[in-house]
Each structure stands twice: as C-alpha cells, then as structure tokens.
Amino acid sequence: MSEELSPVSLLAEAVLLSTRLDEDWSYDPRTGRYRATNGRFLSGKTVEAIVDGRINSLKTKLRTLTASLIDNSVSIEQWQVQTRALLKTAHIQAALVGNGGQQGMDAAAWGRVGWRLREEYRYLEGFAKDLLEQRVSAPMALARISLYGDSVRGSYWTGTTIRQEKQGYTLMRRILDPQAQHCEDCIRYAAAGMVSVGVLPMPGQRCACRARCRCTVKYYRSQMP
Ligand SMILES: [Zn+2]
How far is the CA of 53 from the centre of ligand 1 (A)? Predict the structure, then answer.
C-alpha cells in the first residue's frame, strides 16, 4: 500500500484538517474538560454526541459511495480509494477528540491511529474482493460498509482512555446505552461495575456487538466511591 500512515504524515494531515477539526470544541488540559466555541464547558455526553454525529454523516457518505459502486457509477478502485480517504479523516478526527486535540497526540497516539487504519484497510481489501467476486448482495454491502463507520468510535475511546489516565483517572465503569440492544458480553462488562482502567475492554472490543456496540465508559479517580 503506497499510502503513508506513519505518525509524522498523519500529523501533517491533521494540521491540514485542523481548522475544520476544532470548529466544535477545544480541550483544556488544565481542567481536563472540553469547551464549546462560546467558552462554555461541554459535558462528556455532548462530546460523545459530536463524535456520533460525525460517525452518522460518515456512514451516510460511505453508503452513498457503496451504492454508486453497486450501480456501477464508480469503479471498485475509486470506491476503495475514496472509502480509505473517508475512514482516514474520520479516525484522525475521532482520535483527536478522544486525546484532547493535537497537544494530546504524541507519536504513540499517531502510531495507534496508523495501526488502526492499516487494519481497517486490510478488512476493506477483503471486502473489495468479496464485492468483485459478487459474494455480497447490495443490502449486505450497505450494512457491511456502515460497520466501518461505526468502528471509528473505537479511535475515540482509545484516545479518551489515555487522556483520562493522564488526568489521574484510574478507574472505569462500562455503561450500557438504554436505547441499544446489548450483547451478553456488554451486559457482563457493565455488571462488573467499577474496575481499574484496562481491566474491561473498550466499547466495540471483545463483544459480540463489535462495531455496533453503543456502550460508553465513565472514568473515576481512585478516591471517589
Ligand atoms: Zn456493546
């Protein structure tokens, strides 16, 4: 793959994107909180809603692109190149939100984004092969591409955990989304209650619902009950 996914090139890309990236929020490392453009603090829920909104618009774009592939208005090569570009921007954006902006992104954080993208591109390679060999129906293809959008949430949670650890939060609790259907795994993770960060997987990891997982995480300092 010719595409550059090194920490340095991802950072360069983020700098190019930055005017668009930071329009909804900024992060204050002193308080460990996000602010809106009007200076008001944003709740964790609001930040998650920003991430969700971006994921929803990404999924729409991915589905539109895949529908164009199905009706032959784009080639499989064009589809793959454009899908990769959309995923790259989205994972960078989600990681930036999670890590608390560019100042929270060190080489290791960029390395994780690169690793994640490489993995997504590899899955996409398999998906393209299945499409070429006509092993997937149109509805299946649209459902499958949506999962690539959902999995962007993982980049947000990975960054969030690291940012929270820097702020001294050593405990975590998995929270079920009351609006979602839960898999057995996530019910078990939520039932475990408060544990050390890292004991339970991030939403979307090691659960049957995978990318569809709607769970969230709350972080606590050890002094708190
Ligand atoms: Zn889940």
Answer: 19
Are the beta carbons of 49 and 39 closer than 8 angstroms? no
Please provide residue 105's backbone torsions phi and psi, each rounded to the nearest 5 degrees: -100, 110
Q: Cα(152) to centroid of ligand 1, in Å?
A: 14
What type of residue is 113? V
pLDDT of residue 144: 95
Q: What does the block give as tokens for 69?
A: 């592939």
Going by C-beta distance under 8 Å and a sequence separation of 6 or more, which residues neighbour residue 53? Answer: none
What does pTM read for this prediction? 0.88
CA of 115 to the centre of ligand 1 (A): 22
* Averages of pLDDT over each 10 residues, the chain, 225 residues: 70 66 76 86 89 93 96 94 95 93 91 95 95 93 94 94 93 92 92 94 88 91 68
pLDDT for 2 equals 43
Domain boundaries, the chain: 7-162, 168-220
Cα of 192 to ligand 1 centre, how many Å? Answer: 14
How many angstroms is it from 188 CA to the middle of ligand 1?
10
What residues form DSSP beta bridges with 41? 35
Q: 218 CA to middle of ligand 1, Å?
A: 14
CB–CB of 80/128 below 8 Å? yes
